[in-house]
Design brief:
Blueprint: E1 5-11, E2 14-20, E3 26-30, E4 36-40, E5 68-69, E6 91-97, E7 102-109, H1 112-117, E8 122-131, E9 134-143, E10 149-155, E11 158-160, E12 168-170, E13 176-179, E14 185-187, E15 193-194, E16 199-203, E17 210-214, E18 217-224, E19 228-233, H2 235-239, E20 253-267, E21 272-281
Antiparallel strand pairs: 1-2, 2-3, 3-4, 5-10, 6-7, 7-8, 8-9, 9-21, 10-20, 11-20, 12-15, 12-17, 13-14, 13-16, 16-19, 17-18, 18-21, 19-20
Length: 282
């Protein structure tokens, strides 16, 4: 097996960290947005979708992988869509590989530019750890100011699939969800979620692990302290309007996003919060 590593690299012109675990599992994280752009389980193939038309430029978000939404999910407040941390330059705190893992930690703190958008002092860290067939992503937020702060957050995970129409997401039966296209509430009555049209659902207070079946493979999806699950696929018409997605890209991914959205996090001065999403290749 190749030697484990945690190496600084250039990825499409941007600084990045390449992780490789002793069993051959790999991941690549950009310092731009602390954006995870690649995850390959040991002996497996790429499990995250990256747009062939993604932009790798300062000040612009990258389409695909795992964008971080903070301190606002979507357009639910006055900030730019999904907040502002996904297009900022983060610093590397650490990157290392051990006997059975590889991991990296990146950090962003408030600045004059962020306070002009959101007048709060904060520190946010994003950790990525890989072991064999498992990927763990953890977001930690600390209120470093003297007043309470309030935020929503999500890990906007683009999962690569062979064909979106044939992918089945299990584990959401009986769950309440808001259709973000209509604003209406529903209860999921199916044994699985199938994608055959534009889908933007925010499932509330999801507790069960999820399983995404795709062709002859599967992916276990679990979240901790991120109670909401967003399931998104733009389908054909909306995909054609997104400049940094190829017209047929909707067939190649399904976003299954772990978030704290419905009930914003209220964080007193000096306190911290964390949320985690884990993926297990099967």
């Amino acid at each position: 097996m190749p030697a484990p590593l945690a190496q600084d690299i250039d990825y499409h012109g941007l600084p990045a960290i390449h992780l490789r675990a002793p069993d051959g599992a790999e991941a690549i994280i950009l310092l731009h947005g602390a954006h995870l752009v690649s995850w390959k389980p040991a002996g497996g193939e790429e499990r995250l979708y990256m747009s062939e038309k993604a932009l790798f430029e300062d000040g612009k978000p990258v389409r695909g992988g795992v964008p971080i939404c903070f301190p606002q999910f979507g357009k639910t407040g006055p900030l730019p869509q999904h907040g502002f941390v996904r297009d900022r330059s983060w610093e590397k705190v650490s990157a290392r590989a051990g006997d059975d893992f590889a991991m990296a930690v990146l950090r962003l703190t408030d600045s004059e530019a962020t306070r002009a958008l959101w007048p709060h002092a904060f520190k946010i860290e994003f950790s990525v750890a890989i072991t064999a067939s498992r990927l763990d992503m953890e977001l930690e937020v600390e209120n470093t100011g003297e007043a309470p702060l309030r935020f929503t957050a999500a890990l906007h995970t683009y999962i690569r699939v062979k064909e979106a129409e044939e992918a089945h997401l299990e584990g959401l039966r009986g769950q309440q969800y808001r259709d973000l296209l209509t604003g209406q509430m529903h209860s999921d009555s199916g044994t699985f979620v199938a994608i055959d049209r534009e889908t933007t659902r925010q499932y509330l207070a999801t507790e069960n692990p999820l399983l995404l079946r795709d062709d002859r493979r599967a992916l276990g999806i679990n979240a901790e302290n991120m109670p909401d699950t967003v399931v998104w696929n733009p389908w054909e018409a909306t995909c054609a309007t997104i400049a940094d997605l190829p017209p047929s890209a909707f067939r190649r991914f399904l976003c299954v996003e772990a978030g704290a959205i419905e009930s914003p996090v209220e964080l007193p001065a000096g306190e911290g919060w964390w949320g985690r999403q884990s993926l297990v290749a099967m």
